[in-house]
Amino acid sequence: MSKFNTPTKARAAAVGPIKTKAKTAPTVEGGIGHLRDARSELFLLAVTNMVGESTFYETGKARDSRFVKLVRKLAIKDPEWVAGMLAWLRSPEANMRSAALVGAAEYVHARLEAGLHGDNRHVIASVLQRADEPGEMLAYWLATYGRPIPKPIKRGIGDAATLLYNERSLLKHDTDSHGIRFGDVLDLLHPIPKGTWQSDLFRYAIDRRHNRENAIPESLPMVTTNTIFKTYTPLYVDHLAKNGTLADKLAEAGMTWEQLGSYGPWTAARWEAMIPSMGYMALLRNLRNFDQAGVSNKVAAEIAAKLADPDEVARSRQLPMRFLSAYKAVPSLRWAWPLEQALDHSLTNIPKLSGRTLILVDTSTSMQDPFSKDGTLMRWDAAALFGIALAARCADADIVSYSSTRMYYGDPIGARTKVFDRPRGESVLKSVERWKTGGWFLGGGTDTAPAVQRHFAGHDRVVLLTDEQAGSVVDPGSVLPERTPLYTWNLAGYKVAHTEAGKFRHTVGGLTDAGFRLIPLLESSRNGTWPWRDGAQAA
Length: 539
Known about the structure:
Layout (H helix, E strand, L loop, with lengths): L19 E7 L5 E5 L1 H9 L13 H18 L1 H11 L7 H17 L6 H7 L6 H13 L5 H14 L2 H7 L8 H8 L6 H14 L11 H9 L4 H9 L3 H8 L3 H4 L7 H7 L5 H6 L1 H7 L3 H11 L2 H7 L3 H10 L6 H11 L6 E10 L16 H15 E11 L1 H4 L5 E6 L7 H10 L10 H8 L5 E6 L19 E5 L5 E2 L7 E5 L8 H6 L16
Parallel strand pairs: 3-4, 3-6, 6-7, 7-9
Antiparallel strand pairs: 1-2, 2-8, 4-5
Organism: Nocardia rhizosphaerae
Subcellular location: Cytoplasm
Family: Belongs to the Ro 60 kDa family.
């Protein structure tokens, strides 16, 4: 039996990008904790922060204020790092929209206030990826800082407007539900059009914002067709559906499913005409509606093929939890397999891990905290999803749900745990469903270190999925052998860490699987780097 050439002993020490300071601090629950450096605190907050949303331990206002202060501080001290993070935050990999927009606006304001110029325009443009976002950025700036609007803000938003504004995006996003319309952006910022057709589009957007009934330019045929379509009655729409021409009419008019929904109750015929023009996210959101309207199996098969297509999944920028949410919402089993495939495609960064892995999922009450106001998915849903998905990639894995009864019931043992047995071949979505129905969401307090201690049995690595706010006075890293890697997957972005970062003690975070790719990097003795700086190696 080898004594030295084992995965743990042969591994050289490597460090991850998330750092803690020497100074300790209590967690929100009063347990032992460690302060992070500013970069680490900002990164973990950015990848978990739904702007304006409160969490179990932190109000939305306090959370947003902490985010803004960190961005502004580092925009002066470390501008290149912040600019890289903000662009990555809005990329398909992270897909955090609101945090990226707020961060970019605050980055530029802080630098202009300090008299620092250069690259500000580029940072604004880099986070604006969808046609409604120039208006979002402008609305945030005006509400926060008012006028005058600085040139870098004007030019950065203008660059994005020129890139993103076209007939289809005008019809989809320039609606009365927005306070700042396309015409407002164009009126205030005067971006340079990239051709005659866009010059006509800009003029038309301004005219319709001011209710000027000027003729639609000939260079905008989709806008013209859309205007004509809106004169149709529901009876005539059903006539087009019956004779098989509605799908073409909808495509030519750039009609969205939201617009067609104003024509009265949905029928299978209307949906089947609309579906070819619908984007990936729209399909995902409406699976239940398709079933309720009685969409045919033939059309359902076409939808399923699109949902399960890896290229479509990549282009859709959907977070893995979106597929879990869709699975939980649909009544029909015909969507189960394509959603399972789609989820698997969205988790492509999860590596295959050799050896034995202990995965501990925090299901304390604070993890029963919704990501957003609709409350459809909780942090512990994400923790269970990522934990089970990681286990599916491991050669040998033990999955444990843990919390604590000590805080509420005076249990002297501390940790409350429940082992999850996952049959070979069981789908990730089925496992997550069984996790919920079988009672693995435990509730109560959080005792991480005792849970680690109870279930560690010579594993090659330990992965914790948690908000880190444990009540234990013991550092969970201290109960493991020094050279056994401990990976903390932070799902909330609170200020205080539950363990000291360093060699063999690493933290990753976010609502996607991207952090998992750090595990093989670190275990091959290379230092981890920030995700927008891939390729940096240990010295």
